[in-house]
Write a structure and sequence with these properties.
Layout: H1 3-22, H2 32-42, E1 50-57, E2 60-67, E3 70-78, E4 84-86, E5 93-96, E6 101-106, E7 111-116, E8 123-132, E9 135-145, E10 151-155, E11 166-176, E12 182-187
Antiparallel strand pairs: 1-2, 2-3, 3-4, 3-5, 6-7, 7-10, 8-9, 8-11, 11-12
Length: about 190
């Protein structure tokens, strides 16, 4: 091999390693789950006991893990060469469950999810809503069972849209016991 080819190869290697070390390449991972574990480590909580839900739509993914008193919710997106990195535009991290039951709506994933602390709650009814210019519009009502970990989720229709003065949230949450009696209600 000529001296010129060797020099070009070494320059390319130095550039690739330099990008990897200083250009953000060290923040890419092989899977959305690995992004979640790195996020937990970086934010000094966790690790999650287990993964409750992983949902992927296109080049984005959401991973939800179980913690002692809450959930770990991490959004990720595809990056360089099919690798994964932390997603943009959403709050990622530890979500402590402080009330009997709490829910969230992830419109980019058409997903309602949450957790309950009250073990008597067996079924949840909740609604995803859009607030536009201060007016609340119910988009989808769902009813879902609570699993043994106190976790629940339901898929919704695709209502995501971008615009000024538009945001998405949960409108209400109702908790029912095993006999179908209402034992918890909260309207946001």
């Amino acid at each position: 091999m000529s001296r010129k080819k060797e020099t070009i190869i070494f320059i390319v290697i130095i550039l690739v390693l330099g990008f990897w070390r200083f250009g953000g390449g060290q923040q890419i991972y092989f899977s959305p789950e690995k992004v979640m574990y790195a996020c937990e480590k970086g934010l000094h909580y966790g690790p999650s006991e287990k993964i409750l839900l992983k949902k992927q739509i296109g080049n984005r993914a959401i991973v939800i893990g179980k913690l002692d008193d809450g959930l770990s919710v991490v959004h990720s997106k595809r990056s360089l060469l099919g690798m994964w990195k932390l997603g943009e535009g959403s709050v990622t991290g530890y979500w402590k469950i402080t009330d009997n039951s709490e829910a969230a709506y992830a419109p980019k994933f058409s997903l309602i999810y949450g957790a309950v602390k009250n073990k008597d709650i067996k079924t949840i009814e909740t609604a995803a809503a859009k607030v536009k210019d201060g007016k609340l519009e119910i988009l989808d009502k769902v009813k879902c069972d609570v699993d043994d970990d106190g976790f629940f989720y339901a898929d919704t229709g695709d209502f995501y849209s971008e615009g000024e003065n538009i945001f998405f949230r949960i409108a209400y949450i109702y908790g029912f016991d095993e006999n179908g009696a209402l034992i918890y209600s909260y309207e946001y």
